[in-house]
């Protein structure tokens, strides 16, 4: 099997699997219980919090704030966006992008129905990533209370410099809240924001665990009402086993940019031997996600052909379940090319031999379909 769909989800690493098993056997107590087994569970959670806070920024400086563990990035994004809106009183403007994940985009639609103004900017309207970042900053005004942008787009790897974005926005409007969907960027790029959402299953952790980082001084109301766990911000008995697996995955992660760049360069070199390949991920995109169109071969046909040889890639976001993506259009990809799009996403274990097999099968499919 050749698995090249790591932007959809990753295989849990051995360290995470072992951590889950050990926690299930040794830390199965309720972290709110006052006895020894409950204390062991709380210690596991506390350790995981320190690990996550130290890792999320992508720098040597730990995140200055709190982290709450959630069921995943969808919950984290909803908590951040709806929480920011709940705190808002007089301002009604939100600035976001046209390439957001559905967990952000659909939450924005809910807020629009409640009377909020949502400004969506599309990268296709700007020359480069820096100009797009400037446009986001320039769209913020006195009536804006929230900016929400993903650090790395899940379909193409389009990268936004969140440190630059955060600094520019805060220099003009200090009280505007900046939310970053960092699902694809966590442990891969530098991150900066007031609220940062991440998901465990993108970094070889089990599914069902994510986190929301809340900068010191930022206040949002909880999305869930209940027993008041995690400082009252996320009620519900903590899933100690999943949290332990998430912590272990962070500590074990070894996806290096240089390695991803090497794989991307090799993939592009091999794809250049096939006629009518159109690259949809530009040079400023992160190297672990590569989106391209195989003109003349629809995505569905290509994916099923690759699957015959147990080669697994994607045509875009796994959340869309094959539906037409609006993201590629917002990035300037034509409808015709979007219908032929293939997304390859690497993990640290992928090899050049796997890329050889992928490209060989793509070439065979092209030859068969284009006859």
List the topology elements.
Blueprint (H helix, E strand, L loop, with lengths): L1 E2 L10 H13 L9 H20 L9 E6 L2 H15 L5 E5 L4 H12 L3 E5 L7 H10 L5 E7 L11 H11 L4 E5 L13 E5 L10 E6 L24 H13 L4 H15 L5 E3 L9 E6 L4 H10 L2 E2 L13 H5 L4 H4 L2 E5 L6 H18 L2
Parallel strand pairs: 1-11, 3-4, 3-5, 5-6, 6-7
Antiparallel strand pairs: 2-8, 7-8, 9-10, 10-12
Helix pairs in contact: 1-7, 2-7, 3-4, 5-6, 8-12
Q: Report strand order across the widest sheet.
A: 2-8-7-6-5-3-4
Major sheet details:
7 strands, mixed
Mean pLDDT: 95
User: In the CATH scheme, what's the topology name of the largest domain?
Assistant: Aspartate Aminotransferase, domain 2
Identify the overall geometry: globular
- Fraction of residues in H or I helices: 25-40%
Distance between the termini: 28 Å
Would you list the SSEs in sequence order as H and E? EHHEHEHEHEHEEEHHEEHEHHEH
Work out the oligomeric state of the chains in this entry.
single chain
* Number of separate structural domains: 2
β-sheet strand percentage: 15-25%
CATH-level-2 architecture of the largest domain: 3-Layer(aba) Sandwich
The helix count comes to 12
Radius of gyration: 21 Å
List low-pLDDT spans.
none
- By DSSP, the count of extended strands is 12
- Give the C-level CATH assignment of the largest domain: Alpha Beta
Helix and strand composition category: alpha/beta
């Amino acid at each position: 099997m050749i698995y090249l769909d790591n932007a959809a989800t990753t295989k849990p690493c051995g360290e995470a699997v072992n951590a889950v098993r050990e926690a299930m056997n040794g830390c199965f107590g309720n972290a709110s219980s006052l006895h020894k087994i409950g204390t062991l569970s709380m210690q596991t959670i506390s350790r995981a919090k320190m690990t996550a806070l130290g890792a999320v920024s992508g720098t040597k400086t730990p995140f200055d704030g709190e982290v709450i563990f959630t069921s995943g990035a969808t919950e984290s994004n909803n908590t951040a966006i709806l929480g920011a809106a709940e705190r808002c009183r007089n301002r009604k403007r939100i600035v976001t992008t046209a390439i957001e994940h559905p967990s952000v985009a659909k939450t924005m639609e809910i807020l629009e129905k409640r009377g909020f103004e949502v400004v969506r900017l599309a990268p296709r309207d700007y020359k480069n990533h820096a100009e797009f970042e400037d446009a986001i900053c320039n769209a913020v005004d006195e009536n804006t209370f929230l900016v929400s942008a993903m650090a790395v787009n899940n379909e193409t790897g389009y990268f936004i410099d969140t440190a630059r974005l955060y600094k520019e926005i805060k220099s003009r409007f200090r009280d505007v809240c900046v939310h970053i969907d960092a699902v694809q960027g966590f442990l891969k790029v530098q991150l900066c924001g007031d609220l940062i959402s991440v998901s465990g299953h993108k970094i070889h952790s089990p599914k069902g665990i994510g986190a929301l980082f809340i900068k010191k001084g930022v206040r949002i109301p909880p999305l869930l009402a209940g027993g008041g766990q995690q400082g009252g911000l996320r009620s519900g008995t903590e899933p100690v086993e999943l949290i332990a697996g998430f912590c272990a995955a962070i500590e074990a992660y070894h996806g290096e940019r240089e390695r991803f760049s090497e794989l991307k360069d090799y993939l592009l070199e091999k794809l250049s031997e096939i006629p009518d390949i159109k690259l949809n991920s530009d040079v400023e995109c992160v190297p672990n996600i590569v989106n391209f169109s195989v003109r003349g071969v629809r995505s569905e046909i290509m994916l099923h052909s690759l699957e015959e040889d147990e080669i697994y890639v994607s045509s875009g976001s796994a959340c869309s379940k094959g539906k037409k993506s609006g993201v590629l259009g917002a990035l300037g990809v034509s409808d015709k090319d979007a219908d032929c799009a293939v997304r390859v996403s690497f993990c640290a274990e992928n090899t050049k031999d796997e890329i050889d097999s992928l490209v060989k099968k793509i070439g065979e499919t092209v030859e068969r379909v284009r006859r």
